[in-house]
Amino acid sequence: MSEETSLLVSAETYEENAVNIGTQQKSTDMGRFIERVREDGLYLLDIPTTDARIRSIAALLNTFDAPSIMVVSARQYGQRPARLFAEAVGAHSAVGRFIPGSLTNPALRSYIEPDVLFVTDPANDQQALREAVATGLPIVGIVDANNHLRNVDVALPANNKGRRSLALIYWLLAREVLKVRGETTDEAWAEANDLADWESTF
Amino acid sequence: MSERATHCTSSGIPLEEAGSTTFPCPGCFKPIGRSSRVRNQGVPYKCPNCGFVGP
């Protein structure tokens, strides 16, 4: 089986949606996910690794009850895809400002006790990350070339800043989660969910 | 999630302090344990069962 056929979508689709475009800074933690440096200094992430991680994270998320998965995105471009992902798989989403205490203060109306936290950007979702660590939750995160892996338990290396990139990642992740459950197929998913609808409209 | 790790996969210390966690390995679903210290320092772990390297 060639590399092309084993990917969830073609390498061109990943590239068109800028999923592999990193940043001009690279953290030491992310070194093993970097494929090469472009002439303009941008670090490019390894597409097959990103693809493999989407599969394994989808399988991991399926080991938890869907309502006990919490998806957070403070980043604007991640809010719509994160919300749609949560709706598709039956998870809980917290987009926009994360209310401090949502994971630690039972007196709050927004208090919730998830079993796993999925963050769009560990640097932007600091408050959720901190509370998840305090409560002992495993943390899955989309990490870009400049992110550190501090407090991230399972990393999904991908561009977590781009509108189209975040849409494709969440779209694929939702598809794979539902495929593992046997609730959809590639064709049925693509027919029912236009990727463009998952992009943020900001 | 039924099985829980009792020790940190990276450092081997018991998972007793706050901030430690346990979760199924994304590769084989055997439990992985991470102490608060290795989480805070982003120390890599390797699943002893399937070889999955994380984070």
Describe the model.
The complex is a heterodimer of chains A (202) and B (55). Chain A has 202 residues and is of the alpha/beta class. Chain A has 7 helices and 7 strands; from the N terminus they run H-H-E-E-H-E-H-E-E-H-E-E-H-H. In chain A, the strands form 2 sheets. A 5-stranded parallel β-sheet of chain A has the order 4-3-5-6-7, with helices on both faces. Chain A has a two-stranded antiparallel sheet with strand order 1-2. Chain A is globular. Chain B is globular and about 25 Å long. The longest helix of chain B has 6 residues, at 36-41. In chain B, strands 1-2 form a two-stranded antiparallel ribbon. In chain B, strands 3-4 form a two-stranded antiparallel sheet. Chain B has one helix at residues 36-41; strands at 21-24, 31-34, 45-46, 53-54. The A-B interface holds A 29, 53, 56-57, 59-60, 63-64, 115-116, 133-134, 136-139, 148-155 and B 1, 18-24, 26-27, 29, 32, 34, 36, 39-42, 52, 54-55.
Summarize the structure.
Chain A is α/β, with parallel strands linked by helices and 202 residues long. Helix content of chain A is 37%, strand content 14%.
